[in-house]
Amino acid sequence: MAQSLNFFVSTSRSPDFAISTHSYSKPMFQTPNRLLKLAKSPRKPVVLVSADNGQGGLSAVAAEYVSDNGTKPIVTAPPDSSSIEVDAVTEAELKENGFRSTRRTKLVCTIGPATCGFEQLEALAVGGMNVARINMCHGTREWHKTVIERVRRLNEEKGYAVAIMMDTEGSEIHMGDLGGASSAKAEDGEVWTFSVRAYDSLRPERAITVNYDGFAEDVKVGDELLVDGGMVRFEVIEKIGPDVKCLCTDPGLLLPRANLTFWRDGSLVRERNAMLPTISSKDWLDIDFGIAEGVDFIAVSFVKSAEVINHLKSYIKARSRDGDIAVLAKIESIDSLKNLEEIIQASDGAMVARGDLGAQIPLEQVPLAQQKIVQVCRQLNKPVIVASQLLESMIEYPTPTRAEVADVSEAVRQRADALMLSGESAMGQFPDKALTVLRSVSLRIERWWREEKQHEAMDLPDIASSFSDTNNLEVDALFVYTKDGHMASLLSRCRPDCPIFAFTTDASVRRRLNLQWGLIPFRLGFSDDMESNLNKTFSLLKARGMIKSGDLVIAVSDMLQSIQVMNVP
Ligand SMILES: Nc1ncnc2c1ncn2[C@@H]1O[C@H](COP(=O)(O)OP(=O)(O)OP(=O)(O)O)[C@@H](O)[C@H]1O
Ligand SMILES: CC(=O)C(=O)O
Ligand SMILES: [K+]
Ligand SMILES: [Mg+2]
C-alpha cells in the first residue's frame, strides 16, 4: 500500500525562480496542478521536496524535472509488454545482495586483441563492463565491425545493455604501427630515425614512421621528442630530408601508434599541428562507419572547441537513423582545458583523457584538471569518464600497485560517472582481473560514502539544497520512467544513496544510460498510466526476485509530472 507523505512543492532555490511551496498529502501522490503548470513552462526546473515520511523525523527527497517540451519522441517498437529486459549480472546482484550493494560507478573497457573474442567479451560483461570502447587508432574497420557484432549478440542473447563507444583517432601526430611488431625497445644512447616515409614491408632497424607530413620541417635540432607523453624521450640531433635522427635520452618501450609531442625550451610546440583539423578525413570515414553500425557514443579526440562538437552533432542528426548517438568530448589538450565549459556544454558527456593530457600539461597538473573536469560535468549534468593508466601495471602483473588503487579510489570519491580501462583490457595479460579491481574498489568507496554519510558539499545550484536530506528517507530505490533518458540523468546527477532503476522503452536509450552513475537501466514497455506502469513493474520485478514487498520506492516519470512514494505491495 502507498505510504502517506507530506510534500512541499517548490521551485529550486536558484534566484531565477520564485519559491513556491505547496503542502500535499495523499496515499498515492499525484502532482498538484500548481506543479503541473510550473513544469509545463519549458526548461524550468521544478523540485519536489517531501518532508516527513510518516515515520517521524524530517526527510526529504528531491527530484528535479525539466520540461521536455522541445525533445522529439523516440519511435521504436515497444518491447514485449509482458517482459522486462535486464542482464543476468544485475539480476543476480539484486537478488543476492539487495539494492544497497549495487555498484554505482560505471566501467568502460577498451577492446583490443586481448578481449575481442565472444567469450572474452562475455567475461567482461559478467565482470561489470557497462561500455565497450573501440579505439579507431588501432585495428581495421572490419576488426571493429566484428567486435560491435559480438557485443550486440551478447546483448541480444544475454540481456546485457553494453553500449559501444567509438573513439576517433584525431589528427594528432603519432608513430606508425611498427610493421606488425607489438612493441620495440629503445635503449639509452641509441639513435633512432623518425621519418614520414612509409616503410612498406621491411622496417629498417631503429626506424619509425610518423603520420604527419610536415614533421621534418617542423622539428628543430635540439627539440625534445616525447613518446606517449614521456614514456620514452629522444633529442633531435640531425635532420636529413624526410628523416629526423633522434638520440634516446630516456629508454623505454615504444608501442604501435604511440602519440608524439615536441618540446622546445621547456614548452610544448603547438604551432606545428594547429592547422590540423580535430576530425580528420579518416575520422569522418570512421564516423560514417560508426553511424552505419549504430554505435551509442562517439568520443572525439583532441577537441579544441565547442564548434567541432556542434558540427558533429548536426552531422549525426542528419544521418543517423534516430539521431541518438551521444557525442563525448575528450579533454586531452591545452585548448580543451581553455574552452572547457563551452565544450562540455555542447557535448553529451566528457572523458578525462589523462594519457595525452599528461603529455600536454605538466604531470602534476593532471589531478587538478581531472577534479575540475569532473566538477564541471556534474554542474552541467553531463556524464564524465576518468581514463588512462588507472591500473597500468596490470597490463603485465596480476595485482595493481597501491598507488593505482589510490588513484582509482580518488576517481570514485570524486563521483565520476565512469572509470575506463585502456591497455589493461585491450592488450594486457589480466583484463578480467583489472576489471575486478575497478569493481571492488568502486564498491568499497561507495559503501564508505554511505556508511560515513560522506555526502559531498558540492554546490549544485539547480538541485534543491535539501539534497543531502534525500538520503535520510532511506528509500530503497528510485524508479524513473524515461523516454529519452533526461529525467534519469537528472536523478543520477544527485548521486543519491539508493540505486536508480531507469525504465525505458528504447533499447538504445537503455544502453546510453549505462554510462551514467547509479542508473540501472531496464527496457520495459510502459504507458502514460503511471499506476498501471508501477503495478506492472512491481509484478515483473517481484516475480524475478529483484524487489520484495515492503521495499520503499519513489517513482518519477518524464512523461507525466508526477512523483509517487510507496512501499512495494
Ligand atoms: N583495436 C586494437 N588493436 C590492437 N591494439 C589495440 C587496440 N586497441 C588498443 N590497443 C592497444 O592498447 C593500447 C592502449 O589502448 P588505448 O585505447 O588507450 O590507445 P592509445 O594508443 O593509448 O590512444 P588514445 O590516446 O586514443 O587512448 C594501445 O596502445 C594499443 O597497443
Ligand atoms: C584515452 C585517451 O585518449 C588518452 O588518455 O589520451
Ligand atoms: K583515440
Ligand atoms: Mg588520447
TrEMBL record:
Pfam families: PK, PK_C. Keywords: ATP-binding, Glycolysis, Kinase, Magnesium, Metal-binding, Nucleotide-binding, Pyruvate, Transferase. The keyword tRNA processing does not apply. PROSITE patterns: PYRUVATE_KINASE. Its cofactor is K(+); Mg(2+). GO terms for biological process: lipid metabolic process; seed maturation. Residues 103-434 form the Pyruvate kinase barrel domain. PANTHER family: PYRUVATE KINASE (PTHR11817). Belongs to the pyruvate kinase family. This is Pyruvate kinase. It comes from Cynara cardunculus var. scolymus.
